Amino acid sequence: MKIAVWLGRRLIAIVLQLLIISFLTFSLLFLMPGSPEQILIGPNPATAEQLESIRERYGLNEPFLAQYADWLGAAVHLDFGTSIANGEEVSSLLIERSGVTVSLAIYAIVLLLLLAVPLGLVAGARAGGTADRVISAVTTMLVSAPAFATGLLLLYVFGVVLRWFPIFGFGSGFTDVVWHLTLPAATLAIAVIALIVRQTRAVAATIVRSDYVLFGRARGVAPWTIWTRYLLRGSSMPLVTSMGLVLGFFLTGTVVVERLFSIPGLGSLLINAVSTKDLPVVQGATILVSFFVLLANLLADASHLAVDPRVRKAVLA
Amino acid sequence: MASGNGRPGADLLSVEGLRVTGHDGAALVDDVTFSIRPGETVALVGESGSGKSLTAKAIAGLLPRNLTASGSIRWRETEVVGARERVLRTLRGPQVSMLLQDPFTLLNPLTPVWRTLAETLPGRGAELRLLISERISDVGIEPARARDRYPWELSGGMRQRIGLAAALSQSPALLLADEPTTALDATTQRDVLRLIHRLQRGHGMAMLLITHDLRIATSMSDRVVVMAKGGIVESGDVDDLRSGGRQEYTRRLWAAQLPVDRRLADLRVEARLDGAGAAPVPDAATGGAGAGTTPILVVRELSKSFAARGHGEGVQALDRVGLELARGRSLGVIGESGSGKTTLARCILGLEQPTSGTVELTPGIARRQVQCVFQDPYSSLNPSHSIGFALAEAVRHRAGAPLSRREVAAEIAATLHSVGLDASFARRRPETLSGGQRQRVAIARALLLRPEILVCDEPVAALDLTVQSQVLQVLRDAQAGGLSMVFITHDMSVARQLTDEVIVLHKGRIVETGPTASVLDDPQHEYTARLLASVPSGDREWIAGPPLQRTGAMTDG
Amino acid sequence: MSTGLQTRPARQSSALVVLALAFACLVAGLCVVSFVGLGLDPQTQRLLEARQPPTPGHWLGTDLVGRDVLARVVHGASVTVIGPAAVALGAVAIAVPLALVAAERGGVVDAVVMRTSDTLLALPSILVIIVIAGLFGGGYWLAAAVLVFLIVPSGLRIARSVALGQKNLPYQEAARLIGASTPRRMFVHTLPNLLPTIVATLLLDFVAALVALSSLSFLGLGAPPGSTDWGTMLAENLRLIEQNPWACLAPAVMLVLTAYSATTIGDWLHLRLEGRRG
């Protein structure tokens, strides 16, 4: 019951946020240098008739808010118009490109789940030990480095020198796609893994030194219970609380990674559109990515609610 | 000896030549030897830094990784020093268990009470549920009120009781209780100690009770070991200790204990050891010249409520509280945590706006002439500035007109001297000072504003006993100089020594008020009487008998 | 992504700190060299010597059009580092006073500042910069200016929470009771206690700005084509990875080490400055 209220509120908030984003995105047409007609025609010189037909087609003679309402009405039906560069439907472009980007993000999440918490737990449980020092030094290096630079090093070592993985493209068929996406997903995951490892390590180190672990050991609680219910559960909290941030980073970080590995995803679509000032595509991609990010945040908050009884009480009381 | 296992008379625990060293080789505990027989209670008494907690951890085999124990610790036949964790692990719980000091960090916040208990109880399903309920009611809590709750939904007293139930779940032969009630309110402390005592008798369990309070040690234990600076000062029968102890150190500890039934002439430990300071004096002897009945502070119908955070209910911290402070007198405000005493102090200081009611100062007294000494010595001074900077700021703000550097320095030196510190302290930084020294500096800073009224909010609650009495004497000297004082405390003994009149606060209301001597000698209100009864007397009777209040209430701490 | 002050490792081994400081000095030295010149020749194109792996004449080889990679990497230090440094200084200069005021005044002021910063923080900053820098064509410095505002919130939040933590400490209340004015309490009492936070934030912001601006250059939307910005170099030399990998590895390594040094020095300074207190 109360969960429903919470969920309802969050969904309303997402709709409102999307409205604001859509308004700002729509306004780009008028904020960009150059007249709207010229922007929508593209870089080639245009005749008066062409300009008039564009004005007609996009309703540019109507008042600003009416134009926005029309545009929004179409956008709700996933109609963002056609690409200026090649005349394709923006929505079909988006659908075509989303698959790659979403698989890349999911692959990165799998890597994150497999690596981040165990590494942080090992470092934190023996804080100050050799493993901790190595892990801490490496994560400090990776957490701060630009993704395209670490990605290039991966690409050079595993793609050029060792030739274990392909250095560009997407591939076809499940295994081939996984093979192609390994280096990009690793690049995407590395900075985030380092961040989560650092957070997990800090929490694990605190729990290991906590009174309740000492008390648990003193009263004879089984080591397995201490490791799982005390340490593992407590140390997964940073991963859960940062999930929104992490997913957001995965969805926006693909822009750089797709460029580095020449992968035809949403990110490269957006970059190309921005470089060629292909406004309808930019608008569609921006709104789609924003929607993904907002949805990811909702998922993250819901999982936080599921694992932390304190948050549950604070939110649902 | 109801436990029955083990040879009768044989030691349950024997510690011989225990030494705990840090990674730099320095000994934190050195040459500690004592033993505990089945069913016996031994108290380990010492001030902070005496090594008593480390000794307990070493006995449990749970020293922090960077410390090492040497010597010998035996649980019956098992040698703990150098033993493998696998061996000790199976013995912790049924042989030796431990209860820690802070109820707020004792339990896993992500685990509900029933699961905490289930971790060390046998059985499953309905059988286990029944056992859990039994164990919860054993510690005086109605099972339904705690079973499905998380630790952070419970009061400190309830958490400590659940901790006790968890520690005893496998009926250990020996319980190591490390300051188990220090973090609790006085009335809750006595109830929990009585509960521990009763359960101990019921289980036929031996106990090592670690405490800083000699009176709790004498009322609960059969034998006492006194520790200081990592070593044993003396150990012996509880009656030896009750009659004052054989060693100088122990006698100092006793001397630092403030009585609740009389006012002492001099609070300093040295003076009391001489005998001169220990003489009782009439209660109203402090007021200096000019002490009289003219009120300089009047509080009328003061109420303060705090708005709720989120969806919870708001809190009524103060409910129509009124008081008068006469010039040159000292007014005590006695209360437990949650009584509203600190809120009252903050309203008087103008740090908090009352919801209704008034705080009036006699005309002619500026806000700046009402100063404060806070409870926490560690955050009372700005870590970024030297002592001299903090004191000079006070002088300059009082003087208004610019003073020369020399004038300021001279005044600082004189004031530091008056609180018992050398003038060279002005050059030092806060982090190099002990807690007692910091509180003296805080007093000096307040005095430099030449206040009319000094509000003291638990100024010695965070200090060791021997340091407490020295700082309290400084405050008494200030009273003798004619300073009026509002003295907030939870400690009836401290109130006896420092105040002329007291008000007793309970849940934001005044329940009793009057001259200190008559309130403490002959309390009229049931709550005041309960507070007084919860002051440790050092006698066996203090710990025997049923709890003072029906427990299981959510309000016991 | 920012690493957050609350997650720093307990203590770094001092050898790594020394190396980080040494590398930071090296980068500073390169900046000076690239200003002074010292016979550096990053722009001359020698098409006959293009795409060469390292030779005695060109220690890191040459790029697509025969420019000396070493000279370009050295010259790129100032081009790459000065923008992020300016962004970090700007962001801290805005964040710290705002944090002090928000913490001190509380109420509406605090709510407005914090909600605004929450909103900015929720924006995917790299997308915003890409869209603005790309569509508006303002290039590197417009992106840097926008970036200042996108980076302010993270430091602002940390500084505010530290300032708020100080606000109700007894020493602050003692200063109020003495009669110290609000500005005096903010600047004489609170500000010095924010120093460790400010220093750490400065370096964290620098790293965040370095990542954002070099990413933008890498995508071809920041520094102009042919610039010696390490991000631009990396992107333009990517297709040389088989013939002369050093042409893109060198700027990548420089970027990673610069970011790493700044993070390590930030951690170290934060701990050192905190350690001086009680």
Written account of the structure:
The complex is a heterotrimer of chains A (317), B (557) and C (278). Chain A is mainly alpha-helical and 317 residues long. Helix content of chain A is 80%, strand content 0%. Chain A has 14 helices and no strands. Chain B is α/β, with parallel strands linked by helices. Helices cover 33% and strands 23% of the residues of chain B. Chain B has 19 helices and 21 strands. The longest helix of chain B is centred in the middle third of the chain and has 18 residues. The N terminus and C terminus of chain B are likely disordered. Chain C is mostly helical and 278 residues long. Chain C contains nine helices and no strands. The longest helix of chain C has 37 residues. The radius of gyration of chain C is 22 Å and the shape is elongated. At the A-C interface, helix 6, helix 7, helix 8, helix 11 and helix 12 of A face helix 4, helix 7, helix 8 and helix 9 of C. Chain A: It is a multi-pass membrane protein. Chain A: Belongs to the binding-protein-dependent transport system permease family. Chain A: InterPro entries: BPD_transp_1_N, MetI-like, MetI-like_sf.
